[in-house]
Amino acid sequence: MRSLIWFLCVLFFVPRAIGETIHYTIDVDIRPGDHQLEARVGLKLPAATPGTLVFRLHADLEPVITGGHGVLERIEAAESGSSGVPTRTYRLELDKARREIELSYSGAIYHPIKNLADNYARSFRVSPGLIDSDGIFLAGASYWYPVFQLDRLISFDLNVSLPGEWRSVSQGGRSDRDGNMPERWSEQHPQDQIYLIAAPFTEYRSSAGAVDTLVFLRQPDQALADQYLKVTASYLQMYQELIGDYPYRKFALVENFWETGYGMPSFTLLGPRVIRLPFIPYTSYPHEIVHNWWGNGVYVDYATGNWSEGLTSYLADHLLKENRGEGADHRRSALQKYADYVDGNNDFPLTGFRGRHNSATEAVGYGKTMMVFHMLRRMLGDEQFARGLRLLYENYRFRSAGWRDIASSFSRVAGQPLESFFSQWTTRSGGPDIQLGDVSVDRIESGYRVSGLIQQTQTDKAYVLDVPIALQLEGHDQAVWRELKLTERQYQISIEVPARPLRLSVDPAFDLFRRLHRQEIPPAVSQAMGAKKVLVVLPAAVSEPGLDAAYRQLGKSWQGGRDSDVELIGDDQLETLPDDRTVWLLGWNNRFRGLMNQALDAYDYSVTADGVKVAGRSLGQPGHTIVVVARHPGDSAHALGWLATDNTRALPGLARKLPHYGKYSYLGFTGDVPDNMLKGQWRVISSPLIAELPGSRPTSRLVLPPRRPLARLPGLH
Ligand SMILES: [Zn+2]
């Protein structure tokens, strides 16, 4: 099970797929109201497995042998598994000649949904296993079937009996479609666990080529189902052409009974609110579809690093942005997250990534990995990169692959060894720091010569890098594009051009994984939220009753569940603002608001009679909730944030929403929800990787050579 980017990441260890699977034939009868299941489980083990086996089962389920020959013995009293589910361990002795047995058991599985908190009190609700009148959620970690301690994947035939109106979902295909019980699910390809989801669903069905497309909703909603069925068909078409045949018989969108964003093989389980967010069909949803190729099609050899999140992000999130001409923005946001959340203390090489636990592990495991695939594609070209993807998928479908396997697949299509590229980016932590200096222009016979020095200033050794640069020339619409091969710390630029050069930009489209300079990044919410040390300055004077308590509550929620230091103080208890940390000013009447106005002097921001004007939009104090981030005037390494409202009821919703708006410099909201009505980033001022040359006008736009997306999405919008 894999999770959408901002939801809980639950990863289960996938063993290497070697040889035959353990095959389960499960007949299960479930009474949701009583939390009860009754199961008969036929097991067929590969001939090569030992005669004595150990398995774990939920402690409430007492198994007995009801078919075949063998001896079953309990060897451990109940103990908690890593998921918190109480389990018991059993030893099973099998007949030498036949590796088959049937076990039967019954009992209750009921672990109510619990809250988990993350950075800035983003909360996740989780259950390791639940049979309830609202619905059923059973996975490997529920131990609802015997889980063997064997290095084997599993396959299954599953017959599910439920109350009349209920429908079940599992991996693979369903053989009968008449809605009669039992429902029969079957997956013969190797799996790491067996999921069983059920509820009184309304089912919608269509198809995309040979693949069944399904939507299971808890409330009938034809329009919503149609929308998902339509985009599913578009995605399947695009990705099958790009990567290879979709590996499962169906893809299903399933509505959960609490808020989740899980991706399982051949289906995704989304919460009722998530499923209806307008952007999900174009963001998280395709991400979950692509996981069927990477993660649930080609399995991850976790011991050597989880590459699947980054590759999935590159082929879903990044590719969709590329289709809208926003690839560079997307890459800059990924690099921005890395700059804001990752430092020498929490960085790690990609070979050490298992799953996302916080913003830092996300910035490395998703963001850096995505950039590595982007650099690989830039190096090989689109055609060869796509061939590499297809070869990797073809060779490792339903098997585990690690970075080494990826390197060898791409080396084969490239016809050159790429091991050093992969080892540089996956076994080292950190990334290059690039500096530009000594830029000068000389008149020469054929035109002009641009000289300059590019340096790698990180403390560890030099990276081998293809550094793109763009030169804007007088009288030319489109910039001249060059890629410089850096193998040492220093590189002397010397480029001859036919017309007067106006501006030199290093890596203007953010094609390299590197540590961004502060000035390349517009001040943004993520910078203020990622800070290790934060002071929240509460207003002594508020306009509405209860608002001071609500602000305090917001500040307190930022203190919970983080590994950083958040301090709260009243603006009347402070003489001056400290400049050694990030500061949040809360409230329209905050005593230090003047500093914010000063910090935003160079940007499109002004104070008006009844509020402020941001990027041309007036935001009046009555009716608007606003968030603005600037660089701290005392030290530009830190952020200065300002958050203000007159609406006490808007603050809880704002606290929930804010982490999702990390890349923005300013935000405007209205109402109690609150609803976003303005978002944007400040313009980048004085990047150290841009040299303005004599005669240039800083306001003129850099026009880069056009690029094609890796694949085009058919028939959307
Ligand atoms: Zn993912």
Descriptive notes:
The chain has 717 residues and is of the alpha+beta class. It is built from 13 helices and 42 strands. The longest helix has 22 residues. The N terminus is likely disordered. The site of zinc ion has 5 residues, from helix 4. The site of zinc ion (ZN) has 5 residues, from helix 4.
Short description, anyone?
By secondary structure, the chain is an alpha+beta fold. It contains 13 helices and 42 strands. Helices cover 22% and strands 34% of the residues.
Largest sheet: 7 strands, mixed
Average pLDDT number: 91
Q: How would you classify the helix and strand content by structural class?
A: alpha+beta
Summed up, the helix count is 13
Which regions have little confidence, pLDDT < 50, spanning 5+ residues? 2-18
First-last Cα distance? 30 Å
Side by side, the strands of the main sheet go: 5-8-3-2-14-17-16
Global geometry? globular
Rg calc: 28 Å
Tell me the number of strands. 42
Listed once per kind, the bound small molecules are: zinc ion
Strand content: 25-35%
Range of helix content: 10-25%
SSE diagram, text form:
Elements: E1 2-3, E2 22-31, E3 36-44, E4 52-58, E5 64-67, E6 70-80, E7 86-94, E8 100-108, E9 114-117, E10 123-126, E11 129-131, E12 136-138, E13 147-148, E14 154-161, E15 167-169, E16 173-174, E17 183-191, E18 196-199, E19 202-208, E20 211-217, H1 222-242, E21 250-255, E22 261-264, E23 267-270, H2 272-276, H3 284-290, E24 299-300, H4 308-323, H5 327-341, H6 359-380, H7 382-396, E25 400-401, H8 403-414, H9 419-426, E26 434-444, E27 447-456, E28 465-473, E29 480-486, E30 490-497, E31 501-506, H10 525-530, E32 533-538, H11 547-559, E33 565-570, E34 582-586, H12 593-599, E35 605-608, E36 611-614, E37 617-620, E38 624-631, E39 639-644, H13 650-657, E40 666-670, E41 675-680, E42 690-692
Parallel strand pairs: 2-14, 20-21, 21-23, 24-25, 32-33, 32-34, 34-39
Antiparallel strand pairs: 1-22, 2-3, 3-8, 4-7, 4-13, 5-8, 6-7, 9-10, 11-12, 12-18, 14-17, 15-18, 16-17, 19-20, 22-23, 26-27, 27-30, 28-29, 28-31, 31-42, 35-36, 36-37, 38-39, 38-40, 40-41
Helix pairs in contact: 3-4, 4-5, 4-6, 5-6, 6-7, 7-8
